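Example record

One chain of 285 residues, shown exactly as stored in the release files.
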Amino acid sequence: MELWFTEKHTENVKFSIQVDKQLYTGQSEFQRIDIFESKEFGRFLTLDGYMMLTEKDEFIYHEMMVHVPMAVHPYVKNVLVIGGGDGGTVRELVRYPEIAQIDLVEIDAEVVSACRAFLPQTACGLEDKRVQIYYDDGLRFVRKYVEEYDLILVDSTDPFGPGEGLFTKEFYGNCYKALKKDGIMVNQHESPFYPADATAMQRAHKRIVDSFPISKVYQAHIPTYPSGHWLFGFASKKYHPIDDHNTTAWKQRGLVTRYYNEQLHDGAFALPNYVEELLERVESV
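Predicted structure tokens for this chain:
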């Protein structure tokens, strides 16, 4: 008998992966957590039936979440990661020796526990001594800080369930307040392709534009996310993602990456016309 994981992307589209076996299932206070093994994508994590990451393509998401702002901001010492209990974003951050402190705020301790046990390739950076894990609601946590962080990475789930509060105007305003005078925020920005996802993307973009003087959007191709076309938001008090992109400094670090490079950095901000039109509609309101 064949076992398949299937995620509904729209009323008319489903995405399926053949599964060898289910490694873990659990129901936390917040959501259902499942980890599967597959031939094509290796191990993968789902929350409430929605794909979060696979071993085969998670590097794309996490590299683009971290290395884009790190190649722009020259003095990152203190970082806040909101969400990201799988550890992939932290894994990329700990590769930078100049970072002194990484605060990870994850609402669901069981996600962290499951990923440590079954997704060590992703969760390995959580053991770094610079990482402090707080099991808390990100919206509530960030309210407490004023000019504390150089970089905030919002590695959230989709804008419903436990992640819903991380797409509000209040949340983005509090992130602005928690950043230092030259701080950067990067968030996962949903997909522009299917109408429901595009609406969520526009709503988030409008709220970020209202909160930050510099607000840009960039893209990556992530095969297991809806449509494969995924966006990230880059918001800053001071730095422009292209004008302040320091290619020389980033190359001198000698970091080996599988997706990100300095040419791709600039190119990722060159968006298709249909995406530009979606963004412009909310920017002009």
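Notes: Residues 32 and 48 are 5 Å apart (CA to CA).
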